[in-house]
Amino acid sequence: MNDHVEFVQMETKADYLECFAVMQQLRPHLTDAPAFAAQIRRQQQNGYRLLAAREHGTVIGLAGYRLTENTLYGRYIYVDDLVVDAALQRRRLGEQLLDRVREETRARGYRFLVLDTGMHMALAQRFYFRQGLLPLGMHFSQDLSQ
């Protein structure tokens, strides 16, 4: 089913532009492809990586993650973005992307892989449970622009 899928680190502006349509499915507030590419470039300077699943040259899934460190986990990988094209879900591509991020986490000698998902995202939560990720707390935020 996924025999023609390759997993590639995206690193250039052209790569990021290729990823925009799939990322927009996860982040619909993103409306400008060049602005998205510039943001990914900035995030890249802070340890962000963007892994793409491509089939026949077309991006069909993404895992965006950061190499980071804090006093709770030490050095760890934080998954910011995990998305598979809606028309291609159920092919285990999300699992394959997450497995590759896990492999990098282990290869670096890091102990933890961490991510957040919305409280309203029941399907995503079920997926993460099936992947062996467990909720260890609640994520809080406050919009200070108002």
UniProtKB/TrEMBL annotation:
Entry-linked PROSITE patterns: GNAT
Single GO molecular function: acyltransferase activity, transferring groups other than amino-acyl groups
KW Transferase (keyword) present: yes
Keyword Acyltransferase tagged: yes
Keywords tagged on the record: Acyltransferase, Transferase
Domain N-acetyltransferase: 5-146
Cited SUPFAM superfamilies: Acyl-CoA N-acyltransferases (Nat) (SSF55729)
Protein name stated in the entry: GNAT family N-acetyltransferase
Species per Swiss-Prot/TrEMBL record: Pseudomonas poae
